[in-house]
């Protein structure tokens, strides 16, 4: 097998490893609040929302040390050990204890930063300028299929159940733990590849056509790799330099404008990945199928993500970024309005027996699942275009720029999971509407700056 074939095989193995791992972890995050409500133990006092808040908070802070960890132990071992921490977190639900629950949350937050940094490095060294876009698309597609399999299992396993028994919980989480471990061990099948330096001329790169900036990866896929590659001479000093550069980029006009848009993606990430599924499962009016609808909701979100990522990734050159972001805002506003009408206000914080309240219309399963699809579709609009504009505007400092990106997003996700313990649904939706509107306006301003800068560079090169 030639070098290009070996690199492509590495990307496919990488994608399948992440697909298995996140089939387990995404499903776990989607159902954990509902599962913990059904867990009858006087010794356990944990909250799924609080756990996810800890994970995202620690993840944001751990981006500083992640490149150094990968540089010291190598990307394969880094991903393997990170995968073990993910598996340990999932296995903890087999017999939950408060101390182990929150300890595992901290460890997964650290592991997440290391995992995505190592993934970005492996994707980069197995790609050339001409194959980077293709390989990014392959990885993204395989990763998004993780939304289907675990949630489909939950749908069929929990169909007709109004209470999640200890046996139901243990069966699901033993299965998810095994699936996660399979993904971790797949990383050892990745063969060593020679790094191919990628070159780009920022003065000739079109903001609408750059393959790199159109990457659809929900992580530090293309960004931390440069930090990892150059970390060998002085691990501590390299991490400190990256941190200082990130601070400087954070206060630039462009990043300050984009920060509101990035913050919004953190808030809506929390809503669609944890709060909305829990709310559907709490609706007693949906009958015995309410709990199983959590899995079906996750599948619909995944369909929206895959459809949006594929379509808008291909049409980005033709449409430009602003129309796609505007479509994402409209899509989310429609979803928020329908959720407001369809789901009871106390559903996110309802007790284990659920809520008997109704919203403003007769609750409809079809409307609830349509909203799941719209949430995924709208999220893909925002994420793809934010990755695109950040990749273009900060091409020369991509690693610290994306470190800032994920720091903001993760902090806001942590904040949102924290307030989800207390706020009724309509207040959470109001926060999303306000932040979505402001984030879209600031994105338009940032895009205008990007276009002006591109025109200036063309003029200067004449």
Automatic annotation (TrEMBL):
Record-annotated membrane-spanning stretches: 7-26, 46-65, 77-95, 101-125, 137-158, 170-190, 255-273, 293-312, 324-344, 367-394, 401-419, 425-446
Membrane disposition: Multi-pass membrane protein
Coiled coil: none
One cellular-component annotation, GO: membrane
Main location: membrane
Alphabetized Pfam families for the sequence: UNC-93
Keyword set, alphabetical order: Membrane, Transmembrane, Transmembrane helix
Keyword Membrane annotated: yes
UniProt key word Transmembrane: yes
Location of region: Disordered: 197-220
UniProt-annotated location(s): Membrane
Family to which the UniProt record says this protein belongs: Belongs to the unc-93 family.
Name recorded for this polypeptide: UNC93-like protein MFSD11
Source organism of the structure: Clupea harengus
């Amino acid at each position: 097998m030639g070098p290009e074939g070996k690199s492509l095989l590495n990307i496919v193995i990488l994608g399948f490893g992440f697909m298995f791992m996140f089939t387990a972890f995404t499903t776990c995050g989607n159902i954990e609040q509902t599962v913990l409500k059904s867990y009858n133990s006087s010794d356990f006092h944990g909250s799924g929302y609080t756990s996810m808040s800890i994970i995202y908070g620690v993840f944001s802070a751990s981006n500083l040390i992640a490149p150094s960890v990968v540089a010291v132990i190598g990307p394969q071992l880094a991903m393997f050990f990170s995968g073990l921490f993910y598996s340990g977190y999932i296995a903890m639900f087999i017999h939950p204890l408060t101390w182990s629950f929150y300890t595992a949350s901290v460890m997964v937050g650290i592991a997440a930063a290391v995992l995505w940094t190592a993934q970005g490095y492996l994707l980069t060294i197995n790609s050339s300028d001409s194959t980077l876009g293709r390989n990014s698309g392959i990885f993204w597609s395989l990763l998004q299929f993780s939304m289907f399999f675990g949630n489909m299992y939950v749908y069929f396993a929990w169909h007709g159940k109004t209470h999640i028994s200890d046996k139901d919980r243990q069966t699901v989480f033993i299965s998810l733990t095994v699936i996660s471990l399979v993904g971790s061990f797949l990383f050892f099948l990745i063969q060593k590849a020679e790094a191919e330096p990628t070159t780009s001329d920022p003065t000739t790169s079109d903001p609408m056509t750059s393959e790199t900036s159109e990457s659809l990866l929900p992580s530090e896929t293309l960004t931390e790799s440069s930090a990892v590659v150059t970390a060998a001479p002085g691990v501590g000093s390299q991490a400190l330099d990256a941190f200082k550069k990130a601070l400087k980029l954070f206060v630039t006009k462009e990043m300050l404008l984009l920060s509101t848009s990035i913050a919004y993606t953190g808030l809506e990430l929390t809503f669609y990945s944890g709060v909305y599924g829990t709310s559907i499962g709490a609706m007693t009016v949906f009958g015995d199928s309410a709990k199983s609808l959590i899995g079906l909701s996750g599948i619909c979100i995944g369909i929206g993500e895959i459809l949006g990522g594929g379509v808008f990734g291909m049409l980005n050159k033709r449409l430009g970024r602003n129309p796609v972001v505007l479509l994402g805002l409209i899509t989310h506003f429609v979803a928020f309005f329908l959720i407001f009408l369809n789901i009871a206000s106390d559903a996110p914080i309802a007790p284990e027996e659920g809520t008997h309240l109704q919203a403003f219309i007769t609750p409809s399963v079809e409307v609830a699942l349509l909203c799941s699809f719209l949430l995924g579709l709208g999220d893909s609009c925002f994420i793809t275009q934010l990755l695109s504009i950040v990749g273009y505007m900060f091409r020369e400092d991509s690693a610290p720029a994306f470190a800032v990106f994920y720091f903001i997003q993760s902090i806001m996700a942590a904040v949102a999971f924290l307030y989800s313990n207390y706020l009724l649904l309509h207040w959470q939706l109001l926060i999303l509407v306000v932040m979505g509107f402001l984030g879209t306006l600031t994105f338009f301003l940032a895009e205008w700056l990007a276009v002006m800068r591109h025109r200036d560079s063309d003029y200067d090169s004449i």
